[in-house]
Amino acid sequence: MSDAILLSPGSLSLDALRRIYRDGAPLALNDEARARMAKSRAIVETIAAGDEAVYGINTGFGKLAQKRIAAEDLDLLQKNLILSHATGVGAPMSDGVVRLILATKAASMAVGASGVRPELVEALLDLYHKGVYPVIPSKGSVGASGDLAPLAHMCGVLLGIGHVRVNGQIVPAADGLKAAGIPLFDLKAKEGLGLINGTQVSTALALAGLFEIERIYKAAILSGALSVEAVKGSHRPFDARISALRGQPGQMDVAATFRDLLAGSTIHSSHQGEACHRVQDPYCLRCQPQVMGAILDQMRMAARTLVIEANGVTDNPLVMVDTGEVISGGNFHAEPVAMAADQLAIAASEIGALSERRIAMLIDTTISGLPPFLVAEPGLNSGFMIAHVTAAALASENKTLAHPASVDSLPTSANQEDHVSMATFAARRLGDIAENIATIVGIELLAAAQGLETWRPLETSPRLEAAMATIRAAVPRYDVDRYFAPDLAAIGALVQGGGFDSAVSFDMAL
């Protein structure tokens, strides 16, 4: 597979992770990775056959770490670990998230510090490539000592425990593996612990949130530009010299994008000089480079953290092949992921907050100069009045969802694990925030398109006219009141489905 993503240290780029999430890009394990794993595995097997007590290999777990386990019970210990830790609840995670979990867990183990056999990673890759996705409940992890419960559900299917989803259908794990020609797997010393320790679930959920927010962000840049045109707003706030004097990279990038999107607008040229009655536009228009630029900077910082985490080894204990040591530490603590997810939650909520303010401006004829509520015969028709209420409701909901999760902690495991990250929830709620802002931005796209058409036959820029055509292909113009909910569903699906991905481009690298 020449296009396969090679699982070698540091190989998972943001683009590679995006391909795994969206497309199930093929993965490959090379001989070097197998050799590294074999070396670390030999160390574990030596310890398992010896008399020294080493955590995670021949002891109990958590508060039971002082309990020595007999050599003949070590395999049973690993199975019991999976059974007892598979306590997840809630809706199953999506196929894209599960692909990220499988891929990042395989990549972590391929580094050769986990002490597992290469065959275990091969088994995970079989699940991935054959589309046999473990059914992983979305709730039940506090983000330290790793994502224990959800990862137990992930690896339990290798033992024939739990359920898998194949082509959208949920079947018992043993049946799904048999149909795919994947044999059941017998876990050996430390392998169960290596599977369930780690931040892969939190990281996968946060990456999925990032990838969804990226798409909506691009649509929000477009909707903001269309709103500028709809109210005959000024282009001067996007002057490169303004942003250069401040020096914030996101702001400069966003201002440049607005200049490109707005270039060649005949609507703009129609209200220059004495024809323009505006001194300054509202902040929701004028400060888009500053606000959307700050959001872009936060997304880039979060992306950097998540790429590092996706490539990291986060189970415990870790095998140091060069010295033969097995060292217990705390890489399973997902605080970096929790804080990155909190950054994303705040940033994404601001996308919706700014978009909602532009919708409010567009429907207010005293500010926009457009027909009240963007509809003919207002009074008889209510137009976008309640669509804005929906946007306001969702923007307000996001304020609560954006409350930082990383500032919370509840001790677990009889106070052995006395500070936890809450990263799994921090990352999971990004999906709810993204869904909300997709609807808000979708409403703005419709409202801005409605307002812009008021000025026909004048046209906006070529790039924004192309966006207008995309919008109108999905939702026709709103002339008089009609059943509005299907329109909102259609434009929201277009935003979430990447309908505007090609219209706006940003490099997510710092």
Automatic annotation (TrEMBL):
Post-translational modification: Contains an active site 4-methylidene-imidazol-5-one (MIO), which is formed autocatalytically by cyclization and dehydration of residues Ala-Ser-Gly.
Assigned keywords, A-Z: Cytoplasm, Histidine metabolism, Lyase
UniProt entry tagged with the keyword Cytoplasm: yes
Cellular compartments annotated: Cytoplasm
UniProt main location, coarse: cytoplasm
The protein's annotated pathway: Amino-acid degradation; L-histidine degradation into L-glutamate; N-formimidoyl-L-glutamate from L-histidine: step 1/3
Keyword Cytoplasm (UniProt): yes
Similarity-based family: Belongs to the PAL/histidase family.
Stored InterPro entries: Aromatic_Lyase (IPR001106), Fumarase/histidase_N (IPR024083), HutH (IPR005921), L-Aspartase-like (IPR008948), Phe/His_NH3-lyase_AS (IPR022313)
PROSITE patterns per the UniProt record, alphabetical: PAL_HISTIDASE
Gene Ontology MF annotations: histidine ammonia-lyase activity
Cross-link 5-imidazolinone (Ala-Gly), sequence positions: A144-G146
Catalytic activity reported: L-histidine = trans-urocanate + NH4(+)
Listed Pfam families: Lyase_aromatic
Protein name, as recorded: Histidine ammonia-lyase
The EC number(s) this enzyme carries: 4.3.1.3
Alphabetized HAMAP family for the sequence: His_ammonia_lyase
Alphabetical list of CDD domains matching this protein: PAL-HAL
GO cellular component: cytoplasm
Enzyme class: lyase
